[in-house]
Structures are given as structure tokens and as C-alpha cells.
Amino acid sequence: MKLADRIAVITGGARGIGEAIATRFAAEGATTAILDLDGAAAAETAGRLGGTGHACDVSSRAAVQAAVAEVLAAHGRIDILVNNAGLALMGPSETLSDQDWNASIGVMQTGVFLCSQIVGQHMLDRRHGTIVNIASINAWEAFPQRLAYCAAKAAVVAMTQVLAIEWAERGIRVNAVAPGVTRTALVQKGIDDGDIDVVAYRARTPMHRFGEPDEIARAVLYLACDEDSSFVTGTTLCADGGWSAMGWAVPSSG
Prior knowledge:
Blueprint (H helix, E strand, L loop, with lengths): L6 E5 L4 H12 L3 E6 L2 H11 L2 E4 L5 H15 L4 E4 L14 H29 L2 E6 L12 H21 L4 E8 L5 H8 L5 H7 L8 H12 L11 E4 L15
């Protein structure tokens, strides 16, 4: 039980990769507190895992403060924070609306800042804690029509490094996982909408398949576990089937 007796907060944990992380953590002994914009879904997932669900808009300081206060009242402390909440709003850069830009940056960049700062203050007081941010290969690998998403995920990598070096001597480790194309409901919607070409994506990935949510969750587990990754901070671990390692697309050999 790698996370026995740990209290873990997972943002965007009601579904997708966040749900897989919460499920994996619970299986390893953690008590999970799920923060999600959909409070009912957060409560349902958390209840199934023996944790607590909390409605929270991570782009709002007041909302994050209230949710963190609820978690501390329920569990007494926070040992692990996983900043997972995200969204994918796609479209041509020349017509990207202020609304879609602000929503993307608000959740995936400002949300990481707010949650890290507010939970981080509690961790710094205790001089112990682990933060794992969910970045993306889009922090380095540009995809068309994803300007806000790529910008936000690049910022997540930078924030991970800054927080790691600031807080290293104060007992806090900060790392990130950068997933490649992972089989979630969000990706399936992209396939259904014609935004994702399954054949092309598989051909571009050296392992010739999509990732599964639990594979990302296991990478997060490694970074969250103090015993396994005690000397790791400020790093971003790519879990992408080799996508970011290959500089150009090689035709599949079959």
C-alpha cells in the first residue's frame, strides 16, 4: 500500500484521467478528496472510493479556498495534491474567442497556480507534501487549433519547475506527468467530432496505440509516493508511448 494513510486531493477527479488517478490512489490506501466543477459527479466517484467529493471551480480563488477548507475540516491535512482539472477547447487561432481562451487558461494555468498556492501553504506549514501536475506532450509538441491548450500546458511545466526549486528545502516535492494521447471520454469526443484521426495518431506513436487512463495514473502514483520518488522534484515525466521522442513520423512497418 504505497499511499497508506495519505490524504490526496485530486482536481478534476470525477472522470477521465482524474478518476483513474483517484481509483489507483484509493487502491494504494489513500483517502481521496475529489474536487470537480461537477459536484454531484465528484461526490459519486468519491463515495465509490470511500473519499469525499467537493464542488470546486479551480479558476476561482474563493472556490478553491472554500473547497480546501472543506477537505481540511473532513480529513485534517493534505499530503498529496494532483492538479488534473482540464478542458480542451479547439478551433482556429485567428478566431479563438476571449471566452475560450480565458476558460482554458483559467482552469489549466490559473487553476494550477491557485491550488498549488493554497494547498502549498498548508504543506509548507507542515514541511511535508507532494504536488503532481498533469501537463501534456502539448507543452512541447504543438498541435494545430489548440493554441490555448498548448500555452496552458507549457505554463504547467514551467510552474512545476519554479515551485519545485522554491520549495525543495521546505519539504515539498513538485513534479508533473505529461500524458500522450490517452483513451478518455474527451478523446473519444474528439474522434467522434472528426478532430482526431485515430489511424494517423496511432501511426505517429511508436507504440502504435493510445494510452489508457490507468497507465497515466500509475505514473502519477510513482511521483506521489515519497518512498519511490524521494529524490525526484522539478521533473516532468512523459507517458506518451514514445511520441515526444520521435522527431518525425516514420511509416508503420505493419
